[in-house]
Amino acid sequence: GALLVNERIDREELCGALSPCSLGFEIVVENPLELYSGTVEIQDINDNDPVFPSSQARLEISESVAAGARFPLESAQDPDVGINSLQTYQLSANPNFALDVQTRVDGSKYAELVLEKELDREEQRELNLVLTALDGGSPPRSAHVQIHIDVVDANDNAPVFNQSTYKASVRENTPSGTLVAKISAYDLDDGPNGDIIYSFSSHTPAKVRELFALDSATGELRVKGQLDYEETKLYEIYLQAKDKGAVPGVAHCKVLVEVVDVNDNAPEVTVTSVYSPVPEDAAPGTVVALLSVTDLDSHDNGLVNYVNDNAPKSSQDSYDVYVPENNMPGIPILNVSATDPDLGRNAHLSYTLLGDTTFGHLFSINRDNGTLYLLTSLDHEDQVEFNMMVQVQDGGFPPLATNVSVSVFVTDLNDNAPMVLYPHPNTTTTYTDVVAPGTPAGHMVTKVVAVDADAGYNAWISYTLLQATDPSLFSVGLHNGEIFTARQLREDDAPEHTLVILLKDHGEPVLSTSATISISVAETVKEVLTDLTDVAPASDPRRHVTFYLILAVILVSAAFFITMLSVGIFKCYKWRQSRELYNSSRSTTYRTPGPFNHIDAVRGGFTPPSFYHQVYLTTDSRQSDLLCKKPFTSSPLGSRQGTIRNGEPGLYHQIVGTASRLPTPAE
Which regions span the lipid bilayer (predicted)? Predict the structure, then answer.
């Protein structure tokens, strides 16, 4: 009489939200016959998560909404009942909203967002919250929904200038359209609430509006009329910025425009008193007239000077000075001459070197008379040319000046002897050139290479044969230093020759040096080296140690190379064997011969005739060579021999080599 569950019971499928969930049944009992009715109550377990209608919710809330406003949220659904059903909601932490969970008449829960702190779109344009629904199970199941809140803009911000006062300066007589200043304001609102229009303030004078124009979109203030410094020196312009909101916000700023004076007015001379006629016996210094001079311009433009209207004039605009190198320090090399037709202090001239930090340690000029001195000895090989500027200035106020360029050229002296590059003179190594016996005349044997640090004729080098073992055998090129055979070498010529070459430049005085050349007459260089070993210095025992060390390194390196090469060849050989085995296994059907596993089928002769067309490998074979299939014959031995004959020659030898013996006819 046990009542068993016949299939899985789903309470939500049977009863939905109905609670309690009951199933009725009847039981018939025989002997005696009785009828019993019963009810099974299906108890709920927490096997369902709460579910939101969508994974994301989107709200638009104006930043002008007051605190306390409520915003209903979509509810989650949980098919479980009782304590396992949806019990509460939770909201992620944020500074603006709180969550209020309410209960309906049927006991279900729903949530509302409550605005606790007013929104500010300029501070935060959007908010992202997470709403979590929890049931009462243990552990509780949950569901989440993302709430995206767009903060809608309200015209709650007035435009703001980045400066309350702008300052600009413009020259008088500036043409119309010249940019004076650019004002800029910003509005944190969006759309029309943030669009700005610039304009003059209502109390801006009409005169200012005639002289200046303002771009309402860009805020650029430009010259419109004719500015005159003598009329107005400073303009104070008031501007405003408005947004395009229903109730526009307004901001104000001030632009101070200073008019810069231009020297557009000539001095005016007025005779205030005249004494006339003048007696012929008037004493020197008698006042004849009083003059006054005025200028409407300001500052320097309005200052009037009587005299210093002539700048100093030099007899030459530029000077070229040639100085021999290795000069005596402190010698004068040039006198810069200039004159000024003014009188008195206005005609007093002073001379200075401009940028004297560059050549201040080399040159100096007398401030009063313009004499240029050379302070140190110059070297043509170090620097050939110096360029500088001399300024001649009078004593007027303001002073007038003239610049004169001076170029100093360092001329070359023959102070460097020729220097031999080959053969190197400062070495103990013997340079020996080789010439073969019987060499004909005109054959170039070697060449002397030399340079001279001087310039021009002082650097021209000539080569002459100063001394030779046989003066008739060799000659040297006068200008190129090439050494030739003057005649054909004979058998009776000396085997070793020493030549001394004289090298002279063309300077005044002539400077010279010499080079020594050794020439050996031999068929090969080996003979020369053999001869040289006879005169080589005593051997150093340390050289043998070095030789043995080098030899040991070479032997170890050779052994390592041979070892690595052998390992590589062996690895390649093994790889090829495995590769051939792999290819063979892919193209041939291998079948395990049942009880004859690990037995050489070719050698044993126990394979049934029906298996003769298969190829089996020996148990110790490492090869993967294949044999061709041959039709069945009456003799097992004949079948095996035919199979072997139809294989490739290489394969035939290989199989014979792997079998210890062939089966006899009796077998």
Answer: 547-570
